[in-house]
Specification:
heterodimer, A: alpha/beta, TIM Barrel, 8-stranded parallel barrel, 10 helices, 33% helix, disordered N terminus, B: 388 residues, alpha/beta, 8-stranded parallel beta barrel, two-stranded antiparallel ribbon, 32% helix, globular, oxidoreductase (chain A), Diverse_substr_monoxygenases (chain A), flavoprotein (chain A), Luciferase-like_sf (chain A)
């Protein structure tokens, strides 16, 4: 399926944060709603000082209650152990059958540092440099186990891998764990990982590239970058910058999806978008660009921006998820589907497949020969 | 289902003891059971897909088990031949896996082994409080023994500075860690008001506000082991008086190596006898014996199936004789129940649940339905007193 304007199909993600919700059903309900709308993935923000539950844990709880939607928690790298972080993300991928992502973030405040009592708050550029090294080490640890290693059914002796396009199967003699011997500025890991090989190989790494300190890490390691901008030109400029930097790191820029980040307030129902919204674009606020209006005008805005080629899609943060997500799914998404701009079903089963991202080759695996 | 018959009067006219508690330990590659399998050429460990874990959890819940225990692994152990151990498929990060298992179960307790060496109290407390919320009060933390020293190669250098001298008590740091975690859990009042916490001790100096409201159990159930083999450290020291003292001070559940009934009674009485020193009652702590079993249609068949194991099996026999043996063990005061390490293949726990659990129920030795709102209630443990 090709979009009428010749560009790739839109990618849509939604933030489903409900900070006060401490029970599983509230979170499951919103994720299922996003899945009904065909969203590529949902995000759950997190910080050690943010009210609410641990985000990765919530999405692990959501995973068995959903089947297709990608699950992307924020996991910070400043006060956590890289080895544990990669194991937790790999496990989220494992429980969700290849639907995990990881929104990488740093902890810049002294309040977060005091909860750990280990390090003082540090400048953002140093923390993002460390975050990049954690992202690098994580990918190496995910590769430290090979596909299909000992994934077997003890009753039948057959592979238990499902036919979802993922390499599986028995591989006697292969699948030996590899040491990674990664040495960063602030940590070192020897490996191999103790967690199972993630079904996606590498779970999808997401970086909010709004903060300029985060951009180098986004360009080098992210599969998806989120970019705030009040106009397509602003988003497109950052996208071009990220693509150029990715190229400089030896990456194919086509491996990096750039989503325009937009806060949406659909509280006014079907009323026309406020002045300054709709075709004119969102309003710039202290929290970033804000769209306030109806779901139909939002679809117009998304289609218009996508038509300019400024972004590969949108990451939408509803101001009231419980109210706005339903309007997004039943209004905005339905209209975009009607226009052939957005999927009407999930052709793939993994988040990488939703995003059209290839499954990376294992850097340690010897292919086609003996080791 | 068979209608349960009333409990038999206990020998000697004593009142019938409380029903036993049952838990299952998800087998790891280095379990004695699995090592035995390696010799017979059978696959080791649980198949490393989530569906197998979900099936085991559902089986445990069908059998009305109190909880399931998952261990963490911080370093792949190496062996002489293949470079790394038999657990080649890997083990999921336990707390994440338990959050997912919470979605496929409704009453089963969910316990994770996490050591205190390579994690900080706030992060651990937040993780288990989250699990307790998402599972509706079913979380348990097995405070694992000191990790394999070589696991440090996978962790930051600046983690948890040890400011203790050689004079420090054996569990001083772990004890302070647990205390600090409890302070985080207690930082929200039972009425749902968040208050700042501050802990300044020999090992930890932390302060702030917890982002997670007080969880359904108040504090997740805390488990401690006197049996190093359920932990990540195969070379951990043998059970000592300090181990027992520490367990009596902090734990809600203590896992002990399986022994003869006579030796079990001595150990059980020793651990329970230490509770009073901490202002705790006899029933505030449950002792579970870490047991293995082999079933057969006849005693001879069971013995044949059990042959060749390096370590002796705890219970070998027909479902009837195993049920009787377990019942007698608990009735005689040797333990409050069992942590079972079933044969790792699919069906290992199914066989126990289908054939032994009904017999335990007929004997009045095991529950016939889940009661109580939380794991803590099902274990007959008191609700923790809030110390704001």
């Amino acid at each position: 399926m090709t979009a009428p304007n010749g560009r790739g199909l839109l990618h849509l993600a939604a933030a489903v944060d409900q900070r006060a919700a401490h029970d599983a059903p509230a979170h499951v309900e919103l994720a299922r709603l996003a899945e009904r709308g065909g969203f590529d993935f949902v995000t759950l923000d997190d910080a050690f000082t943010r009210p609410g539950l641990d985000a990765l844990a919530v999405l692990a709880r959501v995973a068995p209650a959903t089947t297709r939607v990608g699950l992307v928690p924020t996991v910070t790298t400043t006060h956590t152990e890289p080895f544990r972080v990669q194991a937790a993300v790999a496990t989220l991928d494992w429980v969700s059958g290849g639907r995990a992502g990881w929104c990488i973030d740093v902890s810049t405040t002294e309040g977060e540092a005091r909860l750990f009592g280990r390090r003082h708050a540090a400048p953002a550029d140093a923390l993002w440099r460390e975050a990049g090294q954690v992202a690098d080490a994580a990918a190496r640890l995910w590769d430290s186990r090979e596909d299909g290693a000992a994934v077997r059914d003890t009753a039948t002796g057959r592979s238990t891998g499902r036919s979802t396009g993922r390499p599986t199967g028995r591989s006697a003699g292969r699948g030996r764990p590899h040491r990674v011997d990664f040495r960063g500025d602030t940590f070192a890991v020897r490996g191999p990982s103790t967690a199972p090989r993630p079904p996606q190989g590498h779970p999808v790494r997401v970086v909010d590239a709004t903060d300029r300190h985060a951009r180098a890490t986004a360009a080098r390691y992210a599969d998806v970058a989120l970019v705030q901008g009040a106009t397509p030109a602003q988003v497109g400029a950052v996208r071009a910058q990220l693509h150029a930097a990715a190229l400089a790191h030896g990456r194919d820029p086509d491996e990096l999806r750039v989503l325009a980040a937009l806060t949406v307030d659909l509280g006014d129902g079907e009323r026309a978008a406020e002045r300054g919204h709709g075709g004119g674009g969102p309003r710039q606020t202290a929290q970033g660009p804000l769209y306030r209006g109806g779901p139909v005008d939002l679809a117009e805005l998304i289609a218009a921006w996508h038509g300019t080629g400024a972004a590969d899609g949108f990451h939408l943060t509803p101001v009231e998820p419980g109210r706005d997500l339903e309007r997004l799914v039943n209004g905005t998404v339905a209209l975009l589907q009607h226009r052939g701009l957005f999927r009407t079903f999930y052709p793939g089963s993994t988040l990488r497949e939703h995003l059209g991202l290839a499954r990376p080759a294992n850097r340690y695996a010897v292919t086609g020969g003996t080791s | 289902m068979t209608v349960p018959t009333p409990a038999r009067p206990a020998p000697g006219g004593q009142p019938a003891p409380r029903p036993m508690h049952l838990a299952v330990h998800v087998p790891a590659a280095d379990d004695p059971v699995v090592r035995a399998d390696l010799r017979t050429g059978l696959p080791a460990g649980l198949p490393a897909d989530f569906a197998s874990y979900a099936r085991l959890a559902r089986t445990a819940e069908r059998g009305l088990f109190d909880f399931l225990l998952l261990s963490e692994e911080l370093r792949l152990r190496e062996d002489g031949g293949s470079g790394h151990g038999a657990d080649a498929a890997g083990r999921p990060e336990p707390v994440t896996a338990l959050n997912a298992l919470a979605a496929v179960t409704g009453r089963l307790g969910l316990a994770a082994s996490v050591g205190t060496r390579f994690i900080e109290p706030y992060e651990l407390a937040r993780g288990f409080a989250t699990l307790d919320h998402l599972s509706g009060g079913r979380a348990a933390w097995h405070v694992a023994h000191a990790a394999d020293p070589l696991a440090g190669e996978n962790f930051r250098d600046d983690v948890s500075p040890d400011r203790s001298g050689p004079s420090a008590a054996p569990f001083a740091r772990t004890a302070e860690f647990v205390a600090a975690a409890r302070e985080v859990w207690d930082s929200w009042t039972p009425d749902g008001v968040s208050r700042p916490f501050a802990h300044r001790g020999r090992y930890f100096d932390i302060a702030g506000e917890s982002t997670v409201a007080r969880s359904p159990q108040g504090h997740p159930v805390v488990i401690r082991s006197l049996d190093a083999t359920v932990d990540t450290a195969p070379d951990a020291a043998q059970d000592t008086a300090e181990d027992r003292e520490f367990a009596a001070a902090v734990a809600d559940v203590v896992l002990v190596p399986h022994r003869t009934p006579a030796a079990g009674r001595v150990l059980h009485a020793d651990v329970k006898g230490r509770l009073a020193g901490y202002g705790r009652d006899h029933d505030d702590l449950k002792v579970l014996s870490r047991a293995t079993f082999v079933l057969g249609d006849t005693i001879a068949e069971a013995r044949e199936r059990a042959a060749g194991a390096a370590d002796p099996w705890s219970f070998v026999g027909t479902p009837e004789s195993v049920a009787a043996g377990m019942d007698d063990f608990v009735r005689s005061g040797a333990a409050d129940g069992f942590l079972l390490a079933p044969h790792p293949g699919p069906g290992g726990l199914d066989e126990f649940v289908d054939r032994v659990v009904p017999l335990l129920q007929e004997r009045g030795a095991f529950r016939t339905r889940y009661t109580g709102a939380t794991l803590r209630a099902r274990l007959g443990l008191p609700h923790p007193v809030w110390k704001g």
